[in-house]
Amino acid sequence: MSGPEHPQRRPAILTVDDDPAVSRAVARDLRRHYGERYRIVRAESGADALDTLKELKLRGETVAVFVADYRMPHMSGIEFLEKAMDVFPYAKRVLLTAYADTHAAIDAINVVDLDHYLLKPWDPPEEKLYPVIDGLLEEWRAVGDRGMPYTKVIGHRYSERSWQVRQFLARNEYSFRSVNADDPKGKQLLDAAGLDGSRLPVVITEKGDCLVEPTDVELAELLGLSTSPQLEMYDLAVIGGGPAGLAAAVYGASEGLKTVLIEKATTGGQAGRSSKIENYLGFPTGVSGAELTTSARRQAERFGAEVITTQEAGKLEINGVGAAHSIRLNEEDTVGARAIILATGVDYRQLEIAGCWEDPDNPANNYIGRGVYYGASVSDNSECAGEDVYIVGGANSAGQAAMYMSETAKSVTMVIRGPSLEAGMSQYLVDRVTKTPNIKIRTCTQVVDTGATDGHLSEIVLLDKQTGQRETVRCDRMCCFIGATPRTEWLEEAGIARDDHGFILSGPDLQNVVGWTLDRPPHHLETSVPGVFVAGDVRSESAKRVAAAVGEGSMAVMLVHRYLAEA
Ligand SMILES: Cc1cc2nc3c(=O)[nH]c(=O)nc-3n(C[C@H](O)[C@H](O)[C@H](O)COP(=O)(O)OP(=O)(O)OC[C@H]3O[C@@H](n4cnc5c(N)ncnc54)[C@H](O)[C@@H]3O)c2cc1C
């Protein structure tokens, strides 16, 4: 994943001594010899040193060596090293002792797994200090932990919210590392943040700030994205931040319209979930959906479009031809616009079998995000390393996901109802999928039941439609790509005409629809409400392709100009 650069910071050598003169002297000698490659950090008490360690941990930095004085009043060097080991277990441990304390130092070898005790004074350092530290650093470099100078998401592998948070960050091309809360590294990070792990996920930013169970709005703010409108009135409001909406925002803003784009989740739409789009013009080796759409968002913003994420348009109030329409976002925010482009795309259809769909009467009773996934594959394919993955569906999106996951998964099985892949997938993908050794294809097959272990999916039941035989197979992850439906019910009240499947009618398709009130016919992408246009997958009979959505988003802006000139 690309994203902002995070230069690897220098590992630290931390010294702690309550005698300021000794503390300065150790730090000075260490800095002289190691200052270029290591950061020398000095503390004058065990408690201070521990606070510093926690800060370093949260910021994703690492410590190579501790040098602690044995005799300190409130916390001895041994006590300090014992606690420090919990935070940086790989750091090498050196105890600084006077001759009289040699016995205590020898005992400490067992208590804190001491690597060395160093007698004071250590002059000349070339003979007594540097050879010791050189040896320890060499050992540390061979096995020591690497810093994680990235934002960390600490959560559980099978937690829906942890998965959603990772998706949100990945789809915005934000660099992060995922850490399991049960792993030692996860526990250390939580300890360092003073958290007991009862509320997950936790996001620890590069600067060391902690977000516990963050909402999408908090995540958007972390990423510097706008979450509420700056103005009350715009020339153009675009609803939906997939390729169609992003294209409309780029063209609207670049052509001088005061433009706002409203997105309920994060920009990118379905395209943002694609691991690799290979048929979009201008990218001969393909482009990840997140990269394409994050660049488009930046492009729209550069032209002055306001892009608001994590806000769902929930109601449209139509105020007559020429007048501004209102879009209700939430209890507080309403946005007015002289023209509107609906680019709300489609949402994934869910498998209607136990554990796989959101039953409104029992919303928690499913494994979605805990082994069952819709539309999204994985934010990073290392997530499915060693797993047995099943992909349900046979369209291009399913093929892309299979290819991406097969790089790390133990096995990937595509389950399709039809007799062959060719019926639903582009030939270039069929060729790749069939040549990949760890991808299996099961045609004429359907998933008919699921089973779980500890609350997450662990098996599925397959039905061979030709023989009628059922087979229960182990399944760590099932990703479903079984078609999509528009979510346009909220537009009914505003009188936006839709076809029998909920897709929005426009232009010539409105011929037989009652309700059009103007003398002129509707413009090509204009809906049954003058001044409200539609673009992309949500339009009835649209092509369901990135390029088509981008083309329609751009073209809708041209028609908006025409409408505004007439109004
Ligand atoms: C995994 C995958 C891989 C694909 N690969 C390819 C490919 O390789 N080539 C290709 O050409 N096509 C591909 N497609 C199809 C392509 O992505 C879609 O055709 C395209 O994204 C449609 O764009 P859109 O803007 O019309 O809608 P969408 O991409 O569906 O975007 C709609 C957006 O509107 C938002 N929204 C919905 N309702 C509201 C609301 N009320 N308020 C605010 N926001 C709302 C949604 O959150 C969403 O972000 C793929 C699709 C998927 C899922």
UniProtKB/TrEMBL annotation:
Pfam family name, one: Response_reg
Keyword Phosphoprotein assigned: yes
Ranges where the Response regulatory domain occurs: 12-135
UniProtKB keywords: Flavoprotein, Oxidoreductase, Phosphoprotein
GO biological process entries: phosphorelay signal transduction system
Gene Ontology terms for molecular function: thioredoxin-disulfide reductase (NADPH) activity
Keyword Phosphoprotein: yes
UniProt xrefs under InterPro entries: CheY-like_superfamily, FAD/NAD-bd_sf, FAD/NAD-binding_dom, Ferredoxin-NADP_redctase_2, Sig_transdc_resp-reg_receiver
Catalytic activity: [thioredoxin]-dithiol + NADP(+) = [thioredoxin]-disulfide + NADPH + H(+)
PROSITE patterns: RESPONSE_REGULATORY
Protein name: Fused response regulator/thioredoxin-disulfide reductase
